[in-house]
User: Which sequence fits this backbone?
DNA sequence: CCACGATGGTTGAACGCTCAACCAAATGAC
DNA sequence: GTCATTTGGTTGAGCGTTCAACCATCGTGG
């Protein structure tokens, strides 16, 4: 028994293409701005943000990977670079000898603090300024639904 | 005069983080599926799609870059790989000696045709199946607004 | 007609991500 | 206690993207 492909109807096509174009353009723009103004890609910025929000500004590698929506491998490479930049330091975990703890350094925090206003301004300009309050609400619900759906599958 | 940063309020924060998580998870998933099932990343799939929709299945490099939302450089590298795979062929442009035309080969078309059902199924499962018809409509409007806004700035 | 700027496209180096392989430590079964 | 499995994390190779530099050709003003 062959399952027929459930092709996209014209509305879905249009939606999917618009979504692709918009999300690519948005992330490309923000990534370029961040690279230009702060010397780091958005993925690295997000790692620093997650660390900065944590008591002690530190997190187990695994937890940090989960928080940043990253694979272990990606995070490992990323933290290696962030460490070379002096923004993060690695420490051994006292309770689990396999564990590593990534710690945001003062220099990393300062770099983040310097980068944040410009980046937030970018997010506002490129995303929120273009949408009505109702659309922002819709986008939140849609995104939460999708994120939920994707982690369950 | 120093402009104060217009920080995100809690709702906007939540929206932005949900959006980031969802779009990253969605594209990561689709990219992985496409790589596994068709041996190409999503960006390359999209290039083949654009070519396939065109009369003669060919496009000037510039036009193709625009259609695929890609930089010239990215496209140049990508087409080089697609050419090595035998899915695309380059031809000289008869009317402009600077120009290059990317042509989808029969083999490229066949590969695309083989990959499409699985990919479309993925888009449906991971995106449309999770959303109500109203949400799909909202997502389309939001995306079109954003895409428009981003190309104007 | 020619000089100059704009356009079309490519290239190579640097960088980030993915994938699979790998090691070490923890956990659980017997 | 010992062995197998799972978990935590790293590594290196291969690939795709970016950025800046570059070359060739086109179009235009003078």
Assistant:
């Amino acid at each position: 028994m062959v399952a027929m492909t459930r092709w996209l109807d014209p509305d879905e096509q249009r939606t999917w293409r618009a979504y692709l174009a918009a999300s690519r353009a948005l992330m490309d723009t923000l990534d370029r701005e961040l690279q230009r103004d702060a010397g780091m890609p958005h993925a690295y910025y997000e790692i620093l943000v997650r660390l900065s929000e944590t008591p002690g500004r530190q997190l187990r590698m695994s937890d940090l990977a989960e928080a940043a929506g990253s694979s272990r491998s990606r995070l490992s490479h990323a933290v290696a670079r962030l460490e070379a930049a002096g923004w993060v330091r690695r420490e051994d975990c006292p309770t689990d000898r396999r564990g590593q703890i990534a710690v945001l350094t003062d220099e990393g925090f300062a770099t983040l603090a310097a980068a944040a206003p410009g980046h937030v301004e970018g997010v506002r300009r490129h995303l929120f300024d273009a949408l009505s309050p109702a659309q922002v609400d819709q986008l939140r619900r849609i995104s939460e639904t999708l994120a939920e759906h994707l982690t369950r599958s």
Notes: DSSP finds six helices and three strands in chain B. Residues 31-32, 35, 60-62, 72-73, 75-77, 80, 93, 96, 98-100 of chain B lie near DNA strand C (CB under 10 Å from a C1'). Residues 10-38 of chain B form the longest helix (29 residues). The CA atoms of residues 144 and 150 of chain B lie 10 Å apart.
